[in-house]
């Protein structure tokens, strides 16, 4: 089978498309023929080995050589103890703990898999698991948000950001999206009430305060955000530089204890319940995955290069040709 692989940390130029053996499922695993895999920020971080915490699975060299956690495909064969799935079943999953999605086949434990809804494409369902759940959990960081509250999403034009806009709007909030000029029209089209081009306006100095701030970017100081969080409001960061991560880990608990503002880091919890909640929002037409481009696996290096430029509108999907 073909697989997009890397053996050293770096940018898209360390990726190579290789021919490797098709894996054999263990007793509780199924072999999946992959039909679609989406790129997440976690893939980019593990590829580069930055921030430093991305090297948790290998300080000097990566432990896993095939990235890709959000997969969708069809069951080809099953291990002898598998009882939940049969060959031909359409499935999807977040395999964040093992990776391996940017390939033609992957083996996955049956407990990680969910049936693919018949009315969704493989591309759509592969876009949801990680980015959708990160957005959902971030918006729940300070408890359930309520109608009329004001929500700001920094980095709103990417994968988690586009989901967050739609979820927040479905709950009746007033949403402000911050991103580059290229993404403003997209953010408006999926429901953002206000959009800000970060290159033209410093949104931390416009005297507007918010009940919840979801920071997907993680480049600004926590103190910039502290002044625009309302009393009893919250700021949650889902990714960023090592400097900003350390800053929020140190000052976040201190600010939360000494003020009425809750500020901290999102610890993404991979689980089927939140994925199913995202599917229910899709069924209610409250959330639709925003897919910028799909690339064949043979152009996976180009796909990662585009992702690294920060221009992606929503999600990028990689699909094996065969």
UniProtKB/TrEMBL annotation:
Gene3D superfamilies cross-referenced by the UniProt entry: Medium-chain alcohol dehydrogenases, catalytic domain, NAD(P)-binding Rossmann-like Domain
Gene Ontology molecular function terms on file: oxidoreductase activity; zinc ion binding
Name of the featured protein: Alcohol dehydrogenase
Coiled coil segments of this chain: none
Domain Enoyl reductase (ER): 10-318
CDD domains assigned to the protein according to its UniProt record, in alphabetical order: MDR1 (cd08267)
Listed Pfam families: ADH_N, ADH_zinc_N_2
SMART domains membership: PKS_ER
Top-level taxon of origin: Bacteria
């Amino acid at each position: 089978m073909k697989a997009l692989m890397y053996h050293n940390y770096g940018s898209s130029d360390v990726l190579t498309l290789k021919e490797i053996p098709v894996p054999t499922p263990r007793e509780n695993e199924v072999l999946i023929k992959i039909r679609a895999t989406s790129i997440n920020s976690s893939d980019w971080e593990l590829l580069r080995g930055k921030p430093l915490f991305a090297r948790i699975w290998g300080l000097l060299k990566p432990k896993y050589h095939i990235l890709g956690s959000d997969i969708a495909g069809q069951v080809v064969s099953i291990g002898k103890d598998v009882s939940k799935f049969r060959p031909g079943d359409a499935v999807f999953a977040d395999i964040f703990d093992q990776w391996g999605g940017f390939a033609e086949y992957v083996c996955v434990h049956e407990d990680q898999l969910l049936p693919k809804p018949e009315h969704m494409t493989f591309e759509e369902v592969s876009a949801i698991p990680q980015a959708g759940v990160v957005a959902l959990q971030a918006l729940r960081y300070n408890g359930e948000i309520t109608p009329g509250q004001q929500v700001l999403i920094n980095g709103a034009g990417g994968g988690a950001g586009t989901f967050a806009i739609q979820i927040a709007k479905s709950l009746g909030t007033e949403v402000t999206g911050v991103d580059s000029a290229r993404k403003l029209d997209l953010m408006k089209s999926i429901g953002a009430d206000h959009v800000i081009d970060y290159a033209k306006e410093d949104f931390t100095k416009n005297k507007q305060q918010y009940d919840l701030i979801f920071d997907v970017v993680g480049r600004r100081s926590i103190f910039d955000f502290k002044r625009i969080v309302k009393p009893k409001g919250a700021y949650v960061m889902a990714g960023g530089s090592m400097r900003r991560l350390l800053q929020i880990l140190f000052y976040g608990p201190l600010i939360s204890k000494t003020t009425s503002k809750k500020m901290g880091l999102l610890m993404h919890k991979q689980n089927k319940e939140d994925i199913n909640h995202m599917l229910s929002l899709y069924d209610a037409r409250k959330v639709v995955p925003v897919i910028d481009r799909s690339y064949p696996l043979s152009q996976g290096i180009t796909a990662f290069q585009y992702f690294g430029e920060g221009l992606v509108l929503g999600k990028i999907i990689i699909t094996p040709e065969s």
